Amino acid sequence: MTQSLVPGAVKILVAGGFGVGKTTMVGSVSEIEPLSTEERITQASVGVDSLDGIRDKATTTVAMDFGRITIRDDLVLYLFGTPGQFRFWFMWDDLALGALGAIVLADTRRLESSFAAVDYFEQRGVPFAVGVNCFHGRREATAEDVRAALDLDESVPVVLCDVRERASSKEVLLALLDRVRSGALAAAGQSA
């Protein structure tokens, strides 16, 4: 009898700066109605949360988003969207505990908002992929432009995407899962 090396449930984080599309991505791929902790942005955030480049944003995640994708009968993928504002980052360590990997969403209009998330996963050795959310279909940079700007290793997948579209969000997830698989095979001394 052979045992599967794949756990029955795996956790993936969807992270990035404020307003990059984390809640939208979780909602676009989840097979269940996603749990969302979106709240209206109030006057209390004035001077605390910068709305530069995202003036139309009216809500924000104050804890996490949660979604699920069933891969097969014995394998379920749980998606946890992290809060984007720095003041809520104290939750990231708990959310990241046991994560197989992460998606870092980036917005080329505010690429600097991705630096902290990239650093977070690099410092903890968590494999990640970068999804460049092309808002309103605008592709203002290439994947290589973003790789250079974020100073990413060649092993980090960078995928241009539109997180409003299920198929596009799935491409980013598949790029991450391929990276995780390749890393696991390399660690076991096998080739992909």
Instruction: Give the low-confidence spans.
Output: none
Helix count equals 5
For the record, give the distance between the C-alpha atoms at the N and C termini, rounded to a whole number: 24 Å
CA-based shape: globular
**Cα-based radius of gyration, to the nearest Å:** 16 Å
Number of strands: 7
Mean pLDDT: 84
Oligomeric state, counting identical vs distinct chains: single chain
Q: Reading side by side through the largest sheet, how are the strands ordered?
A: 2-3-4-1-5-6-7
Helix content: 25-40%
Largest β sheet strand count, sense and barrel closure: 7 strands, mixed
Broad structural category: alpha/beta
Strand content: 25-35%
| H-E order | EHEEEHEHEHEH
Description:
- It is a single chain.
- Helices cover 28% and strands 28% of the residues.
- With 192 residues, it is α/β, with parallel strands linked by helices.
- A seven-stranded mixed sheet has the order 2-3-4-1-5-6-7, sandwiched between helices.
- Helix 4 (143-150) links the parallel strand 6 and strand 7 (158-161).
- The longest helix is centred in the last third of the chain and has 22 residues, at 166-187.
- The radius of gyration is 16 Å and the shape is globular.
